[in-house]
Amino acid sequence: MKTDLELALDCAINIYHQYSVKKPLDDYLSRGEFRALLTENAKPFLTNTKPVRAKLFKETDINKDRELSFEEFCIVLAKVTDDAHRIIHGSDRCAPEAD
Known about the structure:
Protein name: EF-hand domain-containing protein
Keywords: Calcium, Metal-binding
Number of helices: 4
Shape: globular
CATH architecture: Orthogonal Bundle
Oligomer: single chain
Radius of gyration: 14 Å
Largest sheet: none
CATH class: Mainly Alpha
Structural class: mainly alpha
Number of domains: 1
Pfam family, one: S_100
GO molecular function: calcium ion binding; calcium-dependent protein binding
């Protein structure tokens, strides 16, 4: 039986592949695929989505090829997860020194 974390990782990989293999079949996220992925799956965590999406894409497109590899998508996932974590804590960012 898989752990919750294993299931969550499988879910993240599967969602990436649902969008990255659409058109063309290349295992990268175009801007349009990225937009669809976020608006359909992360809407509760994104406010004023168009500027946020554009900023996330630009910041995480490390090699500036105008598409996101899975590695680059993992950076987006970390940022969205951090935002969700802050929302859960009432916008108070958790810090290591708070432990």
